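Retro notes
What went well: the complex prediction finally ran end to end.
Inputs used:
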Amino acid sequence: MITRTFFPWSGAGNPLSQLERLSRQLDGLTGERGPLFGWAPVSGVFPLANVTETPDAFFVRAELPGLGADQIDISITGNTLSISGQRAIPDEEGASYHRRERKAGAFSRMITLPGDVDTEKVSARSVNGVLTVTLPKSEAAKPRQIKVKTN
Amino acid sequence: MDKKDKQSMVAREKQEVTGAETTRPGRTFTPEVDILEKENEIVILADMPGVAANDLNVGLADNILTLEGLTKDAEEENEMTVVREFETGKYFRQFTLADSIDQARIEASMSNGVMRLVLPKVAKAQPRKISVKAA
């Protein structure tokens, strides 16, 4: 099963992303989240992802506990990133369960990035169950400083 | 493979710990756990993504088991948020243990953000002969 999810932005002028940015700046000032910005836009598709950017690259992070680097499939087509895999939690032998809260199953998610990326240079690593995908921006998508000349 | 391993996973928001405030700033979440009992031991598995082995604290006092996992902010300072769907923070959870546990042999390990804690049960109390010394 493939579930497509697209982030609800439409360019840099999206009010939601501006609010998020403002929220993060406020966090930096006060060191905590204010009640107004305490929500997060949740896509409902596993895994939940945080996307950040620097002038040179996008970063996509997702929490995938119990999955090793070789158990996560990542592919990139254009500026659409796909993360898929399967988490199995085998029954332990001779055990009776008191609680069973952890969930197993298959997952597949697509994330469209808001700019072009250099697909050749995309890299991913998984540390302590947190996946980080680094997607360097293509040359055309990088911000270019323009000098203002005087007479 | 079990049937449960084939169904699709659903995104769920992390459960935030409410109640007593902690001294450290930041958010605290409840890790999801599996607890199972075997003949000689109790095993607790907890999902704590982002926690390294040496950032995990396990304590047992008066039959109350405390699990605490600290995380470091994965994001660099120059990164700007585009979309934020999940929050990060530390993990905290406590359990009351009914069976007597051999504290000296408790073992904890972390693998890909999953903690495995093995709590061996105390061997049945052996009858002990007490000799009375003549004064």
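What we learned: Strands of chain A lie at 49-53, 57-63, 72-77, 80-87, 96-100, 105-112, 123-127, 130-136.
What to try next: split runs per interface for comparison.
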